[in-house]
Amino acid sequence: MNLFRLAGDMTHLVSVVVLLLKIHTIKSCAGVSLKTQELYALVFAARYLDLFVHFVSLYNTVMKLVFLASSFTIVWYMRRHKIVRRTYDKEHDTFRHHFIVLPCLVLGLLLNEKFTFREVMWAFSIYLEAVAILPQLVLLQRTRNIDNLTAQYVFFLGAYRVLYIFNWIYRYFTEPHFVHWISWIAGIVQTLLYGDFFYYYILSWKNNVKLELPA
Amino acid sequence: SSGSNLKDEL
Question: Which residues between 1 and 10 in chain B have a beta carbon less than 8 angstroms from any beta carbon of chain A?
Fold first, then answer.
């Protein structure tokens, strides 16, 4: 495992910890999109189907369990927790996320590395992950007062995607036959979606003002 | 195989 990959996984982990910290300790999910969180829960459920079938390493197994458990925990908090759910900004979280699940499933059925259940689910999860951040980005645009933890959550999530691209470039030059169009194209699309956010995040950080995304 | 070595990513 190269340093980019490890750094990517760690920023992914940090993003989840930041979000859980906000939800668990502040008991608030203001500015957090439940739609995006539900999509991530679905992404991990579909991708990690191989958890008990295909063993890679202890590291992989533990990380998969962490991402599965944390995504479902966050959804549970936002839907069921007495205090947290009242802070959910339902009116502004209106992205119709169900409508992107079906196209991703169709794409997974059409474009996959092998036409087996697990491979189709894997491709589906890659396509879905690429667009899962959209409801969150839309909600941020509509949020007047983006708190630091929410902004940091999205920043770390975006950083994870950027680092994964560096990881692929590194692997491409160091491993023979390392070509993966499906995840590369989906990964690049996913990273580009953060472009706008990164621009305004860095701007707000440089000028030391609160983050605000233009609608 | 080229298909399986990416499955070591998360």
Answer: 2-3, 5-10
DSSP string covering A116-174: SHHHHHHHHHHHHHHHTTHHHHHHHHH-SS--HHHHHHHHHHHHHHHHHHHHHHHHHHH
A172-213 confidence digits (pLDDT tens): 999 988 888 999 999 999 999 999 999 999 999 999 999 999
CB contact under 8 A, B5 and A164: no
**Pick from A136, A126, A140: nearest CA to A188:** A126
Residue indicated by tokens 């036409």: A115
- Which residue from A minimizes the CA distance to B5? A178
Query: Has the ipTM of the complex gone over 0.90?
Result: no
For residue A46, give both structure tokens: 């579909």
- Chain B partners within 8 Å of A5 (Cβ): 9
Residue A161 CA to residue A167 CA, distance in Å, equals 10
**Cα separation, A148 vs A145, whole angstroms:** 9
Q: Do B2 and A178 touch (CB under 8 A)?
A: yes
Helix (H) or strand (E) holding A82: none
pLDDT at B2: 41
What does the pLDDT look like over A111-149, one tens digit per residue?
999 999 999 999 999 999 999 999 999 999 999 899 999
A196 touches chain B (CB under 8 A): no
Confidence of residue A52 (pLDDT cuts 50, 70, 90): confident
Nearest chain A residue (CA) to B1: A177
